[in-house]
Specification:
This protein has 315 residues and is of the alpha+beta class. The chain folds into 2 domains: 5-195, Jelly Rolls, CATH 2.60.120.10; 205-314, Homeodomain-like (Arc Repressor Mutant, subunit A, Orthogonal Bundle), CATH 1.10.10.60. It contains 11 helices and 11 strands. It has helices at 18-29, 134-137, 157-167, 181-195, 205-221, 229-236, 240-249, 254-271, 280-286, 292-303, 307-314; strands at 5-9, 34-36, 45-52, 55-62, 65-69, 81-90, 92-96, 99-103, 108-112, 117-121, 125-133. The strands form 2 sheets. Strands 1-3-4-11-6-9 form a 6-stranded antiparallel beta sheet, with helices on both faces. A hairpin with a 2-residue loop joins strand 7 (92-96) and strand 8 (99-103). Helix 9 (280-286) packs across helix 10.
Length: 315
């Protein structure tokens, strides 16, 4: 079977049209995203896409950019995908699932394409992005969401083995491998499962389901300014202590999860044109904050800019 191989480059268009061209290419051929750059006049990027068994491999090289996605953006056929990103040059500041971290050369991360995320590449980046079907990866990761937004270090352990395997894939040789791409893709899935395995005992299925119910309740009720563990515990008919224990087993806290839900709700409101006339103070109150100044401080700490600036840049 002939391998799919397609390339795109901003060299195909005038420099003034590079960023616009790049947005179109990424949205049509990778994922519907928002993309911006601090240096649009000198923006440059190229991507080579190859079929790779059940996966697609995207070799990307691009200058400084910010890439972000909100839940309401249409995924289309990409709805069932995860992205496994392997950084080869540059750094990637990442936010997803309420977690914020930085990837360095050699590191990997699994990204949920359905959920919102925010990536910043301050130095530009060379990276391999593998498009992984959700149903396929569940053959090795029964709950792949548990591995999402976790830094997989390329320096030690199974993470180092995974990074080494991914590092051997390049655009010029991926179509001339000794083994069938489907077999190599399966080996990558096995290495990902080993690298992403929790260091402690795995959370049992019942606890995982309850944690998801708690998080769902927080998302639905985070606008309530006085929401607390006792209120959530009462709704779900469990003890307050059990709520705290659930979050502790997941490496987080009730308070941290609640702030993340409120800030993500505020982020969605600020980029939604329908709420353009709603003041920042009203956004704060509608997202569970009792003081607009507290909201502004929290938002700046989380997203790096105050809510007014964030709204303007999104517009």
């Amino acid at each position: 079977m002939e391998q799919l191989e397609t390339t795109w480059s901003t060299r195909q268009v005038p420099p003034t049209e590079g960023l616009s061209y790049w947005k179109d290419v990424i949205c049509k051929n990778l994922l519907e995203l928002n993309i911006d750059s601090s240096f649009p006049a000198s923006f440059a990027g190229q991507i080579a896409k190859h079929a790779f068994g059940p996966l697609n491999a995207n070799f990307i090289s691009v200058t400084e950019q910010r890439v972000w996605r909100t839940r309401h953006l249409d995924c289309g056929q990409q709805d069932g995908l995860f992205h496994l990103i392997h950084i080869r040059r540059g750094m990637q500041n990442t936010e997803q699932y309420g977690r914020r971290f930085t990837l360095e050369p050699g590191d990997c991360v699994l990204i949920d394409c359905v959920a919102s995320f925010d990536f910043q590449f301050p130095q530009g980046v060379d990276a391999l992005v593998l498009e992984i079907p959700r149903n396929w990866i569940r053959g090795w990761l029964p709950v792949p969401e548990d591995a999402v937004a976790q830094v997989i270090s390329g320096k030690t352990g199974w993470g180092g083995t995974l990074a080494s395997a991914l590092g051997n894939l390049c655009s010029s040789t991926i179509g001339n491998l000794e083994l069938a791409p489907a077999l190599i893709a399966e080996q990558i899935a096995v290495l990902l499962a080993l690298a992403a395995a929790p260091s402690g005992p795995a959370m049992r299925t019942g606890k995982r389901a309850m944690l998801q119910r708690v998080r769902s309740t927080l998302r639905e009720r985070c606008h309530e300014s006085h929401l607390d563990p006792a209120g959530v515990a009462s709704t779900l008919r469990v003890s307050r202590r059990y709520i705290h224990a659930l979050f502790a087993s997941a490496g987080t806290t009730f308070t941290q999860e609640l702030w993340n839900c409120r800030l993500q709700r505020a982020q969605r409101v600020l980029i939604d044109k329908r709420f353009a006339g709603v003041s920042i103070a009203e956004v704060a109150w509608n997202c569970g904050f009792t003081e607009p100044s507290h909201f502004t401080r929290r938002f700046r700490e989380h997203f790096g800019v105050p809510p007014t600036t964030y709204r303007q840049s999104a517009a």
